[in-house]
Structures are given as C-alpha cells and as structure tokens.
C-alpha cells in the first residue's frame, strides 16, 4: 500500500492529516455509524468538492480543506471509521485521493471509534443511527458485559437509551440476557437480572402513581428549595455516600429471592473555584450556582468536566439573578454538543429541576425523589460531582 503524505502544519488549530489513496481504504459494514447513507448530504458534498491537484487535499468552493476522514491502520490495511458521506461523494466524482486522520489500530478499534462518530460533527445522528451504534456494541462478546453507563459513554448516548435497546434486543432474542458485568477494574461480577428488572419496573410504576397523585392536589403556596445533594452535604473535597433503602418490591413471576438492588452513589462535593482545578470528568454534575460568577465558571468548564452522554442537573432557576445566570450558561454552551434544558418534576413537593445533556439523550420527566433522579441518570459506575452549596 502506498500512502502519499502531505502534512498539514499550517495552523496549530487544525489536526495533522495525510493525503491517502481512496483505493487503499477498506470498508466494513460494522464501522458504518449510519443506518443508511443520506443521499442529500452526499449530493451536497459533491456540489461543494473541488478536484484537487496531485497530492493536495480536497477543498470546498471557498478553498477550505474538507474535514479529514478517520481511518485506522492495521499493518497494510486502512479501515474507515468515520467519513462515509465524504468518501462516497469523492468516489462519485472520481477523486482518487483524500485527506485522512490516521491512527494505528485494527478493525475492532475502528468499530469502537465509529460507535460515537458524528455525535460531535457532521450530519446529526437519528435515533436509528444511535440504536444501530448501541446494538453493534451489544453484539460484541466483551462489550456486552459493560455496564449501561459505560456503553452510553462509548456510544455517546444516554444510559436509559442503552438500557432500552438492551432490553429490546434481549426480548427479541437477538442477544442473550447477561448475568455478568465488568466493574471499573475489568473484573466480572454477577447480577440478579430477573430480580433487578422486576424491581425497576415496579419502582417506575410507583413513581408514576405518586406523581399523578401529587399533581391532582392544589399547588402549594410556596415550594421549598430542597437541593439534590442535601442528604450528601459534606465539607468541600470530601467524598460522601448516600444510602437509599427502597421499599421491598413484590416478587415478580420468575424473580429470585435475592434482596432488591440497593443504589448507593458516591457524591464528590467541591466548590465552583475547585471546579476549575478538578481532575477528570463526571457522568452527572449537580450544580448550585449562587452568583453570576458561578454561572460563568460552570459554562466555561462544563464541556471539559462532563462525560459524553453525561448530565448537568440544576434546580430550575427562579429570580432575576438566576435567570441572568442561566442566560449566561446558555450563551457559553451555544453551538456545542450540550443540549437542554429538559425539566424533571421531583418528589411530593413537585420541585422542578433543569437537566442538560452532553449529546442528544432522552430523560424521564418525573422522579419520586432526588435520589431517584440520580439513579435514573447514572449507575454504580457513574462519577457524581456536586458543585457549590445547596440552598437552605
């Protein structure tokens, strides 16, 4: 295989790429992130592409290079992981070379990369595209053992979305129900699949009944400002553990006699000043901004601190200062991959929380309690981060 190279180093903001022969690129259906190619997008690319000179990148009508395709190099093979629409448009125009971001790896690496392709750029993924990505991950004998939260990060979707696809594939007999999961260290542990499913189904029904009952009551004159992390209040930089003891579910047909699952998330509590020095990312961030400066810090740090597929939770803003801060947050994340807010009604007091998601995710709009909301947004492997001091 001959790879013709022209390094792009004219701007430090652009990634380095190579110009390669398209005839050297191998396509496997398992790396195709789309349920189907969008012919309108292919046509649009064809109208914008200019045929390049020898060993030069493909540019648009304004002279700007097209986004490189993503390929993985496995010895003498190049596997396409992202850029199917650009590749199809170039081939129809009989363009022989195209710029590519090349990374060492095999076909499985290309498949894994493709699971979240287009979540940050390009033609926005449809629900069918996201289902295809999750289904491909669940077809893998190793990835199927990962928790729904880890698969959500891998595929850049929400955890409830993964759970729904997993359940559908199991019910249809396309994958086997897994009683084994992998923890954060890669060790296997067994779960009571039947008992857990029966418990979660009952909890969902109980939430619906409780919220329906509360909605039928007259609205209170004042809504207490209970915070999500009140039960977890602790000094900054300490890790606290919330233990939630659910009511005992009725035993479903076929369920085992094991106790209902217990959800015990670990909440890390830091200040807004500490957020700027926080190491790593979190799957769920619960924020309590008190000043405009807090909102500015939150908007500036959010994309760096929130996992792909993760959630930002705030009590719905009230008052002029909070609304001004919310507008500042919206301006900071505009045109990014952070979407929202969606609103969730929580508990008997009907406290409303606003939820933003990194990536397009689905959420449930009712929760029986703050702890229940946290359980809906994550699991035992999720890193929860509480920023700021909850209001009294």
Explained architecture:
This protein has helices at 39-48, 84-92, 107-114, 127-138, 148-155, 159-171, 193-215, 272-275, 292-305, 320-333, 370-377, and strands at 18-21, 25-26, 69-74, 77-82, 97-104, 180-182, 188-190, 239-241, 266-270, 282-287, 306-315, 338-346, 351-358, 366-367, 384-387. The longest helix is centred in the middle third of the chain and has 23 residues, at 193-215. Helix 1 packs across helix 2 (84-92). It is 31% helix and 20% strand. It is globular, with a radius of gyration of 24 Å. The strands form 3 sheets. It has an 8-stranded mixed sheet with strand order 8-9-15-10-11-13-12-14. Strands 1-5-3-4-2 form a 5-stranded mixed sheet. It has a two-stranded antiparallel sheet with strand order 6-7. Strand 3 and strand 4 (77-82) form a beta hairpin. It has 11 helices and 15 strands. Mean pLDDT is 75; it is low at 1-15 and 219-260. It is of the alpha/beta class and 392 residues long. The chain folds into 2 domains: 18-114, Conserved hypothetical protein from pyrococcus furiosus pfu- 392566-001, ParB domain; 198-387, no CATH class.
What is the strand and helix layout of this fold?
Layout: E1 18-21, E2 25-26, H1 39-48, E3 69-74, E4 77-82, H2 84-92, E5 97-104, H3 107-114, H4 127-138, H5 148-155, H6 159-171, E6 180-182, E7 188-190, H7 193-215, E8 239-241, E9 266-270, H8 272-275, E10 282-287, H9 292-305, E11 306-315, H10 320-333, E12 338-346, E13 351-358, E14 366-367, H11 370-377, E15 384-387
Helix pairs in contact: 1-2, 4-6, 5-6, 9-10
């Amino acid at each position: 295989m001959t790879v013709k190279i022209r390094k792009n180093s004219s701007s430090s903001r652009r990634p380095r790429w190579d110009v390669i022969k398209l005839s050297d690129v191998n396509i496997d259906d398992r790396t195709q992130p789309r349920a189907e190619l969008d012919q309108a997008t292919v046509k649009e690319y064809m109208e914008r592409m200019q045929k390049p000179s020898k060993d030069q990148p493909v540019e648009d009508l304004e002279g700007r290079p097209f986004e490189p395709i993503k390929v993985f190099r496995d010895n003498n093979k190049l596997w396409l992981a992202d850029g199917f629409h650009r590749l199809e448009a170039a081939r129809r125009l009989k363009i022989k070379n195209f710029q590519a971001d090349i990374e060492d790896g095999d076909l499985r690496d290309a498949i894994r990369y493709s699971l979240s392709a287009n979540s940050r750029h390009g033609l926005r993924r449809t629900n069918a595209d996201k289902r295809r990505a999750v289904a491909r991950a669940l077809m893998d004998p190793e990835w199927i053992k990962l928790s729904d939260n880890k698969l959500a990060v891998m595929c850049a979707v929400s955890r409830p979305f993964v759970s729904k696809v997993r359940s559908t594939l199991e019910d249809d007999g396309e994958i086997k129900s897994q009683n084994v999961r992998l923890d954060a260290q890669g060790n296997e542990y067994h779960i009571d699949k039947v008992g857990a499913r029966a418990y979660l189904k009952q909890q969902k029904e109980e939430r619906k009944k409780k919220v329906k009952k509360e909605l039928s009551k007259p609205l209170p004159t004042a809504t207490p400002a209970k915070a999500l992390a009140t039960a977890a209040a602790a000094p900054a930089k300490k890790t606290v553990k919330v233990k939630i003891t659910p009511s005992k579910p009725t035993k479903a047909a076929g369920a085992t006699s094991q106790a209902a699952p217990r959800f015990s998330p670990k909440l890390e509590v830091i200040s807004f000043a500490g957020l700027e020095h926080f190491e790593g990312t979190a799957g769920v961030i619960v924020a309590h901004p008190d000043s405009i400066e807090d909102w500015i810090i939150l908007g500036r740090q959010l994309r760096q601190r929130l996992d792909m597929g993760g959630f930002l939770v705030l009590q719905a803003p009230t008052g002029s200062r909070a609304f001004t801060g919310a507008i500042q947050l919206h301006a900071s994340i505009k045109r990014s991959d952070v979407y929202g807010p969606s609103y969730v009604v929580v508990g008997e007091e009907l406290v409303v929380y606003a939820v933003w998601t990194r990536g397009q995710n689905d959420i449930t709009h009712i929760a029986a309690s703050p702890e229940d909301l946290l359980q809906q947004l994550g699991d035992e492997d999720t890193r929860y981060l509480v920023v700021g001091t909850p209001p009294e």
